[in-house]
Amino acid sequence: MEKFCDSLTRYSRRETVAVQIGNTAIGGDNPIRIQSMTNTDTNDTAASVAQTERIAAAGGEIVRLTAQGRREAENLGAIRAELDRRGCRVPLVADIHFLPSAALVAAEHVEKIRINPGNFNDKGGQFDELLAICKRRGAALRIGVNHGSLAPAVMERYGDTPEGMVASAMEFLRRCRAAAFDRVVLSVKSSNVRVMVQAYRMLAAAMRAEEMRYPLHLGVTEAGNDREGRIKSAAGIGALLADGLGDTIRVSLTEAPEREIPVARMLADYFAGRENHAPIPAVDESLYSPYSYRKRPSEKIGGIGGDAQVAIWSEIPAAVRETLFEADIRTVDRIPRGRIVLLKTNNLNGIAEQRAAMLTMAGRGLTNPVIIQRTYDESDPEVLQIKAAADLGPLFLDGFGDAIRIENLNPAIPQSEIDALSLDILQTARVRISKPEYIACPSCGRTLYNIEKTLAAIKARTGHLVGVKIGVMGCIVNGPGEMADADYGYVGSGPGRITLYKGREVVRRNIPEEQAIDALLELIEKSQMER
Predict the structure, then answer these.
(1) Dist CA 362 CA 360 (whole Å)
(2) Is 528 exposed, middle or buried (0-12, 13-18, 19+ CB in 10 A)?
(3) Of 469, 463, 411, 415, nearest to 438 (Cα)?
(4) Which SS3 state, helix, strand or coil, does residue 460 take?
(5) Is this model's pTM higher than 0.90 or not?
(6) What is the pLDDT of residues 482-504, one digit of tens each?
(7) Mean of per-residue pLDDT scores for the chain
(8) How far apart (Å, rounded) are the C-alpha atoms in residues 465 and 433?
(9) Which of 111, 119, 126, 379 is least crowded, fewest Cβ atoms below 10 Å from its Cβ?
(10) Within 4-95, where are the H helices?
């Protein structure tokens, strides 16, 4: 397969064409753009305008609204007009799912249309008609593939894999090229961070092979809220930004949309200026597996490495710590066999340097266990969460590392919080499971219950269920698909009504919302007793 980036050891942003979205451009020489999505009813003009203004005031440069039907699509015109009257020129994006006819209506009113190929039923040449409207109006298109809603034909050939996601995106992208339409942005999102990272790398490689330079919109779907949501987003988005991929990002949190903006801005700023990093020696790139997970083989020493679970620093005995061999890219040559390596870096492009160090070890046949360490001096827990997840998460996602150490020089953050952060990074990378996993959508205008409050209540009552995956989804549009690998699902099915899933199967439909959490707990308890 074609390379997904120019170099594993020299940072440069992927070269892309600039795509104009109203008064804002994505790609080219432009900075990484930050965006979010409203969770208001798109038919409610006042509420949608007010929330759009809050997102813009927080620093959001593009705002997306759902347009699940023709009425919502038509009302985007009223929302655009009212925002213009108020002097808010932030570009609007219509989010389209099942109805191509809604896309045709929305394209007359907003600056960009997002379609999901898996749900875009293109009978009657409506995709070509959509491109014609976008050409006439100067509107852009996002081909937004979701892991959980691939078309049946794609599923039959590829399954729900990164390969299938890329095939779906490339099919529609080639149609755009054939129609001489180049105002295109692409995304291949998943709630599984490992799948998300692999899919974006494959997509970048596929476009590179066909000499396409369209911008990428990055995001982890259904990341959830609080620390877990930030860590999932930072690890997945950070893995791609570290290698120069990504032109616009949305951090999807089950919180007020404007709260997504500072997290996204922090991530974008954290990777800005990495072109100026200290040189990193070239490596044998054939030793790297960017498109499928491959655990780096290591021997077991002092309870670290081999078949032992990935450890956090607090679990490593003092006697073992005293035997560590501290190394970085400059001292890899001197690593002795039979010692645990504490791998450090102070390179601005630390992910690339630590990855290069481990690839160099592999090239020399060294199977020492490796503790990956990064050092910070942060007083704000959220800042530490985002930086550490962005720095360390990508390495564990790729199968590197036998233990993790987050060293924070500022005593304002207790070690217990650092331990929890370390475990969450390992869980995000799916290398160690220590708690339940919640796949929770950020909600939008299709959500008909208070998902933020509900998620908090479900987490409070299920925190003891280590390893159980619970999907909390606003509606049936993407819900069942995006939580396809969840053990249990809680999905909005109508105003105040919830449908429960076990795996991909519906168990109970249209439960009154006030009874639904109890019903979910009963379902989980019954299922576990039957095992």
Answers:
(1) 5
(2) exposed
(3) 469
(4) helix
(5) yes
(6) 677 788 988 888 888 899 998 88
(7) 93
(8) 11
(9) 379
(10) 45-57, 70-85
Burial of 85 (0-12, 13-18, 19+ CB in 10 A): exposed
Residue 505 has pLDDT above 90, yes or no: no
Mapped onto helix, strand or coil, the DSSP state of residue 69 is coil
- State how far the Cα of 222 lies from the Cα of 227, in Å rounded to an integer: 14
In angstroms, the CA 288 to CA 4 distance is: 12
Q: First-to-last CA distance in the chain? A: 42
Residue 402 DSSP symbol: S
415-454 pLDDT, tens digit per residue, is 999 999 999 999 999 999 999 988 877 777 667 778 888 8
> Tokens representing 459?
């987490």
pLDDT digits (tens, 9 = 90+) for 396-414: 999 999 999 999 999 999 9
Weakest mean pLDDT among 9-13, 228-232, 375-379, 493-497: 493-497
Contacts of 460 (CB under 8 A, 6+ apart): none
Residues 6+ apart with CB under 8 A from 283: 8, 9, 356, 359, 360, 363
Reply yes or no on whether the pLDDT at 1 is more than 80: no
Structure tokens at 52: 């759009």
HEC assignment per residue over 121-166: CCHHHHHHHHHHHHHHHCCEEEEEEECCCCCHHHHHHHCCCHHHHH
Q: Are strands 497-502 and 505-512 parallel, antiparallel or unpaired?
A: antiparallel
Query: What pLDDT was estimated at residue 121?
Result: 63
Nearest Cα residue to 508 out of 471, 516, 438: 516
DSSP 223: B
Separation between Cα atoms, residue 93 and residue 25, nearest integer Å: 13
Cα separations (Å) of 365 from 77, 299, 431? 62, 12, 23
Burial 8-46 (b: 16+ CB within 10 A, else e): bbebebbebbebbbbebbbbeebebbbbbbbbbbbebbe
Any idea what DSSP says for residue 328? -
For the stretch 207-225, what's the b/e string if a residue is b when 16 or more beta carbons lie within 10 angstroms of its beta carbon? bbeeebebbbbbbbbbbbb
Question: Phi and psi (nearest 5°) for 511?
Answer: -80, 135
